């Protein structure tokens, strides 16, 4: 059963991510809106992760409860495979072509390194092995590395972690991990040198790994397990709380304690996105149908928005058109390509999966 509230949340998450990247990748850091989207954009990916924590646990429970462990896990992994891979494979090979022939991203790369990049991207391991986000034109791939690792770990959580205190223990470990980055306890283990110019970038890299991001997945699990009650807010109350929450987060994200601590930053974000999730995951409103539709195609939007921005930057569209025309051009192309990707590729994957399931039955 599709939850419209989840699609609304996905729509919100992708808008926050895309808006931030629009200003960042086109070099618009001096625009007055940049500061707002650069801060609020930090909620986008964590919101996707908390959604994933909720939905993946829900999917595993449903499949195992109705079909048994062996068949249920087969169904679960088949669903994940056909949910992620079709659009990803198409996106990857088109971007690989663009990287070689249009953007010339790999002109200085050796053949062996290119082959390694292809292999690690197809196995969703490049972010772990190369400390890089993608093939130079798609930084979005890093989250898929985390997501795919979560897809394999989540069934173990369902099968072997029955008591909440063990999840709380994992949360404590995540907190210790983040504090260890803050306090530089991991520098020797991770071979980090505080005197190097890339030190802060590497700290960010490690703060985005699963030991820290597990906070958001577990938050989704807790909401699924303990907050199934329907919360009756009026629409006006819900939207006022939503706006106040964003304003409060924007205020906190400008504070020194937020900017200088990975622990504080992630703890604030996990609380904010959890409240956002609770506000909307059971909510449906006809006035939010466009946002729910954006949420429906959000995976394709996530895959395609950075390559489109990279091409716009490559062809200097800001020097040709005004900012608003660039925004309209980008939005139109993104929605068109993402719609085609969803309806032609993602939905084809869903149909093929159902066909395979019916054949097995």
Question: Would you mind describing this structure in some detail?
Answer:
It is a single chain. This protein is mainly alpha-helical and 361 residues long. It has one domain (4-11, 47-360). Helix content is 78%, strand content 0%. The chain has 18 helices and no strands. Helix 3 (44-67) packs across helix 14 (262-280). The protein is globular.
Q: Care to give the gist of this entry?
A:
With 361 residues, this protein is mainly alpha-helical. The chain has helices spanning 4-25, 34-40, 44-67, 69-101, 111-122, 126-130, 141-160, 164-182, 187-190, 199-207, 210-226, 235-253, 256-259, 262-280, 289-296, 298-314, 317-320, 323-360.
Descriptive tags:
single chain, 361 residues, 78% helix
E-strand count: 0
Q: Would you tell me the overall average pLDDT?
A: 92
Euclidean distance between termini CA atoms: 21 Å
Helix proportion range = over 70%
Strand content: under 5%
Uncertain segments: none
Number of DSSP helices?
Answer: 18
Could you spell the SSE succession in H and E letters?
A: HHHHHHHHHHHHHHHHHH
Count of domain modules: 1
Shape type: globular
Query: What radius of gyration results from the CA coordinates?
Result: 21 Å
Show the helix and strand layout.
Blueprint: H1 4-25, H2 34-40, H3 44-67, H4 69-101, H5 111-122, H6 126-130, H7 141-160, H8 164-182, H9 187-190, H10 199-207, H11 210-226, H12 235-253, H13 256-259, H14 262-280, H15 289-296, H16 298-314, H17 317-320, H18 323-360
């Amino acid at each position: 059963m599709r939850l419209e509230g989840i699609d609304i949340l996905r729509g919100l998450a992708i808008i926050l991510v895309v808006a931030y990247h629009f200003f960042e990748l086109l070099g618009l850091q001096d625009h007055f809106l940049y500061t707002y989207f650069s801060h609020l954009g930090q909620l986008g990916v964590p919101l996707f992760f908390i959604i994933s924590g909720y939905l993946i646990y829900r999917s595993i429970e449903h499949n195992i409860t109705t079909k048994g462990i062996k068949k249920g896990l087969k169904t679960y992994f088949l669903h994940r495979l056909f949910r992620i891979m079709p659009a990803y494979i198409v996106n990857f090979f088109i971007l690989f072509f663009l990287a070689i022939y249009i953007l010339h991203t790999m002109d200085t790369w050796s053949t062996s390194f290119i082959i390694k990049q292809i292999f690690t991207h197809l196995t969703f391991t490049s972010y772990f092995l190369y400390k890089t986000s993608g093939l130079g034109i798609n930084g979005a791939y890093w989250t898929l590395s985390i997501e795919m690792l979560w897809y394999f770990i989540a069934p173990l959580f369902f099968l072997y972690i029955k008591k909440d205190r063990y999840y709380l223990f994992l949360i404590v470990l995540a907190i210790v991990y983040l504090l260890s980055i803050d306090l530089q306890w991991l520098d020797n283990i991770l071979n980090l040198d505080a005197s190097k110019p890339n030190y802060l970038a590497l700290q960010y890299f490690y703060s985005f790994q699963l030991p820290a991001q597990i906070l958001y997945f577990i938050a989704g699990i807790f909401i699924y397990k303990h907050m199934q009650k329907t919360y009756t807010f009026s629409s006006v109350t819900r939207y006022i709380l939503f706006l106040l929450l964003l304003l409060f987060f924007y205020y906190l994200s400008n504070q020194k304690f937020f900017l200088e601590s990975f622990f504080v930053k992630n703890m604030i974000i996990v609380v904010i996105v959890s409240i956002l999730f609770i506000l909307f995951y059971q909510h449906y409103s006809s006035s939010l149908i466009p946002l729910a539709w954006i949420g429906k195609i959000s995976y394709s939007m996530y895959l395609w928005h950075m390559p489109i921005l990279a091409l716009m930057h490559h062809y200097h569209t800001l020097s040709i058109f005004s900012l608003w025309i660039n925004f309209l051009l980008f939005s139109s192309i993104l929605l068109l390509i993402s719609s085609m990707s969803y309806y032609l590729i993602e939905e084809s994957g869903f149909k093929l999966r159902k066909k395979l399931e019916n054949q097995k039955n």
